[in-house]
Amino acid sequence: MGQVNSSVPMEQNKSDQSFKQGIWIKHYCSSHKILLVGEGDFSFSACLEFLKKNYEKAMSNIDSLRSRGCKVIHEVDATKMLGYHGLNYVTYDRIVYNFPHAGFSQNEPAKDQVRRNQDLVSEFMANAAKMIEKSGEIHISHKCNGFFQQWGLQKLGEKNGLVLIEEVEFKLSDYPGYNTKYGYGGDKNFDCNPSKTYKFRLKDALYN
Ligand SMILES: C[S@@+](CC[C@H](N)C(=O)[O-])C[C@H]1O[C@@H](n2cnc3c(N)ncnc32)[C@H](O)[C@@H]1O
């Protein structure tokens, strides 16, 4: 099971005014400092940078991200990323984990699978909550039917001091070039419909 993880900070400019002036792709602005974790084939990261640079072609997503000044780090555990030396205690405007999944285990009862996935998301949230700017947002895109609904993202957020501020339908077509990857056992894409992007903020920042 490969856990490829990435950190992709983009250039930042802190004020809300400057966010308005940047180039936006759905929820993300070229002036945000963004940390993306649990990337599959890096096509989501590449999509954000790709549009920003006017549809320029690149040999591979990682090479293209690096050549544009993004930092790409492998083998970072999203549940232990706080204090990871390569991330240098930076705080981010957006921390994004698209389609978290803890992997498959044969014949595992459904309730144990749910619990393992909840642990992954909860520990990711606990770390992200300490790495996000006060006004920042933590985004998790996630399937919103059946087994996936049972993970209870909103409650996991509350347990980690986060408040769900918005849930928005996730449309793959908003991110040209992005392929949603299983992450385990090859290069296959998975069907991400129906999905939502769940946006969280720090409870303390909202109510204090
Ligand atoms: C369903 S795949 C989604 C991949 C990618 N984000 C996408 O949208 O195509 C789940 C990803 O989570 C990663 N993952 C699982 N546990 C992780 C952990 N503790 N830290 C970082 N990544 C993890 C897997 O390696 C896999 O790439």
From TrEMBL:
It comes from Stephania japonica. It holds the Pfam family BMT5-like. The lineage of its organism: Eukaryota, Viridiplantae, Streptophyta, Embryophyta, Tracheophyta. This is 25S rRNA (uridine-N(3))-methyltransferase BMT5-like domain-containing protein. It comes from the Eukaryota. GO terms for cellular component: cytoplasm. GO terms for molecular function: rRNA (uridine-N3-)-methyltransferase activity. GO terms for biological process: rRNA base methylation. Residues 35-181 form the 25S rRNA (uridine-N(3))-methyltransferase BMT5-like domain.
